[in-house]
Amino acid sequence: MMEKLSYILLLILQLFTVFAYSYSPNPRSGHLSAFINNKLYFISGSTTLDRAVISNDFFYIDCSMNFNSSINSIPYTSLSNLNGIPSIDVAGSSIVGPYNDIILTFGGIGLNNSYGYQLIYTFDTKSLTWNSLSTYGILPPIRKGVRPVFSYGRLYAFGGFNNINGTPYNSLDMLDIGFNWSNITLSNAPSGRDGYVSALLSNGNILYLGGYISGQTAGLDIVYLYDTNNNLWQNMSTAGTTPESRGYFTSVLNLKKNRLIIYGGESTQGYNHPASPTLAVLDLSSNPFTWISQNVSGDFIPPPLLLHTANVVHNYMILAYGMY
Ligand SMILES: *[C@@H]1O[C@H](CO)[C@@H](O)[C@H](O)[C@H]1NC(C)=O
Ligand SMILES: *[C@@H]1O[C@H](CO)[C@@H](O)[C@H](O)[C@H]1NC(C)=O
Ligand SMILES: *[C@@H]1O[C@H](CO)[C@@H](O)[C@H](O)[C@H]1NC(C)=O
Ligand SMILES: *[C@@H]1O[C@H](CO)[C@@H](O)[C@H](O)[C@H]1NC(C)=O
Ligand SMILES: *[C@@H]1O[C@H](CO)[C@@H](O)[C@H](O)[C@H]1NC(C)=O
Ligand SMILES: *[C@@H]1O[C@H](CO)[C@@H](O)[C@H](O)[C@H]1NC(C)=O
After folding, report:
1. CA 323, CA 49: separation in Å to the nearest integer?
2. Residue 278, by phi and psi: left (phi above 0), alpha (psi -120 to 50) or beta?
3. Do 234 and 260 touch, CB atoms closer than 8 A?
4. How far apart (Å, rounded) are the C-alpha atoms in residues 191 and 201?
5. Alpha-carbon distance 50 to 57, whole Å?
6. DSSP annotation string for 39-79
7. Which end of the chain is more exposed for a tag (fewer CB within 10 A), N or C?
8. Measured from the CA of 234, which atom of ligand 5 is nearest?
9. Which residues have C-beta atoms less than 6 Å from ligand 6?
10. For every one of its 324 residues, what pLDDT tens digit does the chain have, with 9 covering 90 and above?
11. Which residue puts its alpha carbon closest to atom 7 of ligand 3?
């Protein structure tokens, strides 16, 4: 386990292994992805298993092609010649802006295991420019393993881990439209964690699940919900058969936003144990939320991945890169 860096994998409905063509990015993990206007962007990440090399690659895949055909080549376009591309590993990202066409990166580990760079970078997909964003107020510390969520002009960044001073965070930091940070301190907040997944639900709640708490994976039998409308934390015990606990996995919402599909992750740090089952589904339309079994079939089943990305593109979940 965990000896390989993966290429792009497509999953769900039809399953293909996909190999690169012309411009061919290196395998990587701890990168970021964002799907905007039919382009699936990939940013940075580490191209070595020891995480010593952090790339400043930036490229996209044109997803206007029909995935309902066996894909022999991926239409990659490199944007690595642009100025100001962040070089970050295990960072977080969100799609932001009034037109949902700006990629925002949050934190992450820089070169030489340092945090000596900006907290936030943005890429405007219209003007094709990278900027580092100056923010004000109660500046949150830079950290890794945060999954920020953008809702109604506000960015919510919960938890994360600073692996230089070994500090986990459980504060929820909120960046408003004037780039002013505030620190939301509330009772019932989940304990500090990194490598969790987050999702903005249609009722305005942000769901948080799993991850590492002080090096131990958190059980998937408790879902935390931050209510962005009423500014409060709640938790819910899930029903059904709970999948194994895990960190550094991914989640996507289905198109109806009533199911959360999680993929991969490791269940114990250091022992490199892939969490089982690799793919699991949480039904969000039931009360309490219920884990339902999901059998995966197809010609090609991807391996259990870690530090990969997952994006919904048309009616597919695209898993990209990662380690296994
Ligand atoms: C793929 O698309 C073709 C035409 O666009 C359609 O006839 C066929 O049923 C599709 N196959 C699958 C498996 O969806
Ligand atoms: C990283 O460390 C190497 C070797 O010590 C050094 O040459 C390089 O300048 C450092 N890079 C940064 C960005 O600190
Ligand atoms: C936010 O509030 C929490 C709880 O009071 C505190 O531990 C943390 O240091 C604060 N964060 C910042 C960046 O001030
Ligand atoms: C920034 O946010 C804090 C906390 O919400 C607020 O007290 C302060 O007035 C804000 N500052 C500006 C310049 O908006
Ligand atoms: C869940 O919320 C209740 C209050 O509603 C609180 O007493 C309990 O400690 C919370 N559980 C966890 C695991 O955070
Ligand atoms: C999954 O596969 C197992 C074994 O083939 C079968 O018993 C089970 O009913 C299937 N579950 C679903 C939800 O299709």
Report:
1. 8
2. alpha
3. no
4. 21
5. 18
6. EEEEE--BSSTTS--B---EEEEE--S-SSS--S---EEE-
7. N
8. 2
9. 293, 295
10. 445 656 555 443 333 333 333 467 889 999 999 999 999 999 999 999 889 999 999 999 988 876 655 555 678 899 999 999 999 999 999 999 999 999 999 999 987 777 767 899 999 999 999 999 999 999 998 899 999 999 999 999 999 998 778 888 889 999 999 999 999 988 899 999 999 999 999 999 999 999 999 889 999 999 999 999 999 999 999 999 999 999 999 999 999 999 999 999 999 877 779 999 999 999 999 999 999 988 888 777 888 999 999 999 988 899 999 998
11. 171
CA dihedral for 112, 209, 43, 47, sign (positive or negative): positive
Q: How buried is residue 136: exposed, middle or buried, by Cβ count under 10 Å (0-12/13-18/19+)?
A: exposed
Question: Can you give the length of the chain in residues?
Answer: 324
Whether omega for the bond prior to residue 190 falls within 30 degrees of 0, making it cis, is no
Nearest CA to 48 among 119, 104, 111?
111
The ligand placed nearest to the CA atom of residue 232 is: 5
Q: Quote the CA–CA distance of 184 and 156 in Å, as a whole number.
A: 10
For a mutational test of ligand 3's pocket, the pick from 143, 167, 170, 185, i.e. the residue with the most ligand atoms closer than 8 A to its C-beta, is 185
| The pair of three-digit structure tokens given for residue 170, joined into one six-digit string | 């459980």
Bridge partners of 212? 194, 217
Q: Cβ contacts of residue 201 below 8 Å, gap of 6+?
A: 207, 225, 253, 257, 284
